[in-house]
## 1
Amino acid sequence: MASAMAGPMGAVIPATERTRLRRLPARASHDRAAIDAILDEALVCHVGFVHEAQPYVLPTTYARVDDVLYLHGSAASRMLRGLREGVPVCVTVTLLDGLVLARSAFHQSMNYRSVVILGTATEVTDDSERLRALEAVVEHVLPGRWRQVRRPSAQELRATMVLRLPLLEVSAKIRAGGPLDDAEDRGWPCWAGHVPVELTALAPVPDGVIPAGAPAPRLPFQGRSEP
């Protein structure tokens, strides 16, 4: 089974001119463990690139394995074919942790954990690494799922492109806590504070042709009240 090992405790990814946070630098983190934790918890990333002078930002699934982020999709994908040719890429991941309700519109905000990755992706052509990457993507969504599903066929593998993006230029930005109201607004007559938010899966919905005895999936973020 492919695994995403967290970076060494205390390890730091050096900041570069492109990843150094200039606005609110106290919210920046280059701690490898913090970055890995955000990437491992989130399910969707957004891939930013330029194709024929037109910027695009597209959502997709991904997986982190050690110090590499894997992206995959159709071999006919304009995004993947462009990235394979060396187009610079910016990948972002965001976890929404709460709504920050301030006493002024100006200080209204959100609590979040986010990661930005800059670099150049390369195509994975080694068959073993491609299969490990696809396994990692499946396991990232639902641990243990790879053991349950049919493996990709040779035709499906030919129709799939896998890219690897090294975690070399990476930064995290994190906000937590309540509103930062101005002192003169503290007496404003409205509720203020923050509302925690988290991703919760509802009860699985079967497709109607499940064999008897097949257990329903249990996601790490599934609501406790759901069966």
## 2
Amino acid sequence: MPEEPPPSPDPFALTLSQLEEAIGGAFMQQMLDQLSRQTFVGGKRVAVRELPGLPKQAATTVHRVKVSLHGARPPVWRRIEIPSAMRLDQVHAVIQVAFGWHGLHLHAFETVCGEFGAPDDDDDWAERKDEATAALAQVAPAEKAKVVYVYDFGDDWRHDIVVEKIAPAEPGVAYPRCTGGRREAPPEDCGGIWAFNEFSAGLNETFDTSEVTARLASLAKVLVAS
């Protein structure tokens, strides 16, 4: 007995399936396009802004920023005056000194202009722009602007950098300099903020701004001659 030919596919079913695939593909592409126009800053999704040019006045102004270790209880913070035109790779060095880190781990900056980091620091998870191509004044152009500096993706030390004031540099003063702060910072590889909060009772509550400023001397320069 001859075999019956297989039934012909339903043209309507094929059209519906193709339509669903097309709609699904278009929706996915729309979602990917939307995500590509967004970035994270401190856990919040924000629209990515194009990196602006460096303002002319940035050569002679300083950003007074408060750098707080996110989640630390009691708070751990540093107030630092940083040249507005300082590149992010140098800001990285400033924060390392101010908090007593030793540069043993990867780091990144989360900004409204995208994520920045060192070109050699490739963790295969994120696409980062070269931190040497952006200055502080470009990613934090106004007072109250926020940038997040992340150090050690394992312990995940997150530093909230908030611009308190942008002011003309004082004649004859070398920047960066530390003007305030609270508490000792965590030791390297201690397990992250939760472990630090649990075992930080014995840390020194006092803070010496002049000591930090002295350690910043190799990064400092006078912006306006006296």
